[in-house]
Design goal:
It comes from Vreelandella neptunia. This is TolC family outer membrane protein. Belongs to the outer membrane factor (OMF) (TC 1.B.17) family. It is found in: Cell outer membrane. By secondary structure, the protein is an alpha+beta fold. The protein has ten helices and six strands. The strands form two sheets. Strands 1-2-4-5 form a four-stranded antiparallel β-sheet. Strands 3-6 form a two-stranded antiparallel sheet. α3 packs antiparallel against α4 and α5 packs parallel to α9.
Length: about 475
């Protein structure tokens, strides 16, 4: 239910419309929730990072798996060689000694080539590393889904935070104007001696507070708008408003146990932690496989050529066989790796249990909150009616002298607070309902489209009047006749 349906004077509506009209030409159609959601899915940096991380993990599996495929390596050298030789002899005699030395050098070139191919026949470590990589891909799929669902709830929350801030700002605008007129009326009555100066000061204090509330509401609207831009990387001139006919009902099915079961079975964070257990278990298997032998087939070819001693010629050889390796003692690293992997497995099991409990608690809390929101929205709506009636009665009492201006001001504030609280309650219901779906693993684009159908197509624009100069919200003199009951 919009503010226009509650306690807005007819002469005031054009003024509010002018305040919220953009100073630039608006697009033909305001952006709706599903359009902004798709923009976020295409442009959000955090989601793009998660997608790249998934692709990186997927590529890591191919890196590990390459160890089980044929390996072919070739190497070769071309070298210029120089050899230096030195020889000497000596004879010793009484009082005499002679010696002779000869030296020479040799220069030649050599060429060698080597080609080797290997194929793993039995390598349990690498095989289990491939299994672990597959488990990591499974885990990354769930983490990517969790990131996407978090983005959906973030976009929806930011979208409805804007609408919430907009409706609260509308209420604060109307409150400031209403109290401003009350202040002007009090000033006129004081000038002719009908009321004391204390009532004027009471009205001014209340007006100052309403002005502060309006400024805070403006800030909240702008902050909410910036949050949406951060998620999508785009700026929107306006978005569609939420309709008054939005259904306020309990989640379907209306069973808390059902939503708890959905969270256990479908929550991507829970499933990611569960997949993490399998990743850690594969790590233990890899460590244990370190004690097993490896077996591979190989074949190589060697070729050499040299022009030493000014002769030409070459030699070559080839070899085909099977190579086996059995680790007998590795300094205790294998046993330590097994212990390390076992502790990591225990840690991942505890992480899974913690996430499972957290998801169950959040689903229960959100289901309770949504159920309470249904009643709260109804109560807040009725509070507007009650406060409207109370304001009219207080104004009537003020006209005949049975109520003072403080009573009127309090009634004014109560009414507009009730309007703001009603807006809060409606948007809390929508966001909590979507959060419940997220925790149950059931938040997707289809769910966003269902909520998008509740929008009206009415534009909500975020351009506020420029600051500076005289305050445009300061009550003007000679506004007109004081408000009558029921206006």
């Amino acid at each position: 239910m919009r503010l226009a349906h509650w306690a807005v004077n007819a002469p005031l509506r054009p003024l509010l419309l002018a305040v919220f009209t953009a100073s630039f030409v608006l697009p033909a159609q305001a952006a709706d929730l599903i359009t902004i959601t798709r923009d976020a899915l295409d442009n959000n940096a955090e989601l793009a990072s998660a997608r790249s991380e998934y692709l990186g993990v997927e590529a890591g599996r191919d890196v590990v798996r390459s160890g089980l495929l044929p390996q072919i390596n070739a190497s070769g050298t071309v070298a210029h060689n120089e050899q230096y030789e030195s020889q000497g002899s000596s004879r010793a005699g009484v009082g005499a000694g002679t010696g002779s030395v000869s030296a020479g050098d040799d220069r030649y070139n050599t060429v060698s080539l080597s080609l080797e191919a290997t194929q793993a026949l039995y390598d349990e470590v690498t095989r289990r590393q491939v299994t672990q990589a597959e488990r990591q891909i499974d885990q990354q799929v769930y983490l990517l889904a969790a990131t996407e669902q978090q983005l959906l709830i973030d976009v929806a929350s930011a979208y409805f935070d804007i609408l919430r801030a907009h409706e609260v700002l509308e209420a604060r605008f109307a409150q400031e104007r209403a109290i401003g007129r009350q202040l002007e009326q009090a000033g006129e009555q004081f000038e002719v001696g009908l009321i004391a100066i204390t009532e004027v000061e009471e009205a001014r204090a209340t007006f100052d507070q309403s002005r502060a509330d309006r400024i805070a509401a403006e800030s909240n609207l702008q902050v909410a708008f910036e949050a949406l831009e951060q998620l999508t990387g785009q700026r929107y001139a306006s978005i569609e408003a939420l309709g008054d006919s939005m259904p306020i009902a309990l989640p379907e099915p209306s069973s808390r146990d059902y939503w708890v079961e959905q969270a256990i079975e479908r929550n991507p964070q829970v499933l990611a932690q569960q997949a993490g257990i399998e990743v850690s278990r594969s790590g233990v298997d890899i460590a244990r496989a370190g004690r097993l032998p490896t077996l591979s087939a190989f074949g190589n070819y060697q070729y050499g050529d040299s022009d030493i001693d000014n002769t030409t010629g070459n030699d070559s050889s080839s070899q085909v066989g099977i190579r086996a390796n059995l680790p007998i003692y590795t300094g205790g690293s294998t046993s330590a790796s097994i212990r390390q992997g076992t502790y990591q497995l225990e840690s991942s099991q505890y992480d899974f249990e913690s996430q499972r409990r957290s998801s169950i608690q959040q689903v229960r809390s959100l289901y309770t909150q949504v159920s309470n929101d249904v009643e709260t929205v109804e109560a807040r709506e009725q509070a507007i009616v009650s406060n409207q009636s109370a304001l009219e009665a207080t104004r009537a009492g003020y006209e005949v002298g049975t109520r003072n201006i403080v009573d009127v001001l309090n009634a004014e504030q109560n009414l507009y607070n009730a309007i703001a609280n009603y807006a809060e309650a409606r948007y809390n219901y929508v966001v909590n309902l979507l959060s419940l779906r997220q925790q149950a693993g059931r938040l997707d684009v289809d769910a966003i489209e269902e909520v998008n159908a509740w929008l009206t197509g009415d534009e909500v624009n975020f351009t506020l009047p420029e600051s500076g100069g005289d305050d445009p919200y300061e009550p003007a003199l000679n506004i007109g006749a004081p408000p009558q009951p029921g206006m």
